[in-house]
């Protein structure tokens, strides 16, 4: 798929064609946290099974594991030090939103994860393989066609009013 086509597909998700990739202030490594350490998505995105929005990790949550030295990797240590400074200052990391749905679309993480029993990877892809944060949403999963295809595959009705407000 061409870069232009991918960018235009992303526009359906709230990004304008040609928007630059999302660059996070800390290059969070999902591969290490999910794969090597063995955390589950809701260890950091605490509300993924209980609320409409999954939420982003708070500094105090990160410091629960990173208060002590957990790595000898110099690059990782710089990021841990940034977390510690933010915590000491009472400030959060300014994570940048990657997934945006149009205002008229309603989506509930709880409805899909807890009630629908979907794995996070059904919409977000295999995050455990990513050594760097995603720069864009998974276009196929969060398009109207992607949602409708998934509903059809799982035998769930495609009622317009469930998602469109």
How would you describe this structure to a colleague?
- The protein has helices spanning 3-11, 30-36, 41-44, 59-66, 74-89, 109-115, 121-124, 144-154, 160-163.
- The chain has 165 residues and is mainly α.
- It has nine helices and no strands.
- The longest helix has 16 residues, at 74-89.
- The structure class reads mainly alpha
Q: In angstroms, what separates the terminal alpha carbons?
A: 31 Å
Low-confidence sequence ranges: 1-16
- The helix content, as a percent range, equals 40-55%
Number of helical elements: 9
Quantity of strands, as a count: 0
Please state the oligomeric state of the protein chains shown: single chain
Work out the radius of gyration: 17 Å
- The helix/strand order is HHHHHHHHH
For the largest beta-sheet, the strand count, sense and barrel status come to:
none
Which features characterize this protein?
165 residues, mainly alpha, 42% helix
Secondary-structure map with pairings?
Layout: H1 3-11, H2 30-36, H3 41-44, H4 59-66, H5 74-89, H6 109-115, H7 121-124, H8 144-154, H9 160-163
Helix pairs in contact: 4-5
């Amino acid at each position: 798929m061409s870069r232009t086509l991918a960018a235009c597909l992303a526009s359906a998700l709230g990004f304008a064609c040609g928007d630059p990739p999302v660059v996070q202030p800390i290059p969070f490594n999902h591969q290490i946290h999910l794969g090597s350490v063995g955390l589950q998505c809701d260890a950091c995105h605490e509300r993924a099974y209980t609320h409409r929005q999954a939420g982003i990790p708070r500094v105090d949550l990160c410091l629960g594991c990173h208060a002590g030295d957990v790595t000898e990797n110099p690059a990782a240590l710089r990021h841990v030090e940034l977390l510690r400074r933010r915590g000491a200052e009472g400030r959060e990391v300014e994570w940048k939103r990657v997934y945006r749905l149009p205002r008229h679309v309603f989506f509930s993480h709880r409805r899909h994860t807890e009630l629908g029993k979907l794995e996070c990877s059904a919409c977000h892809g295999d995050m455990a393989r990513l050594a760097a944060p995603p720069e864009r949403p998974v276009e196929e999963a969060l398009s109207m066609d992607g949602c409708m295809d998934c509903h059809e595959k799982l035998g769930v009705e495609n009622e317009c009013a469930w998602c469109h407000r």
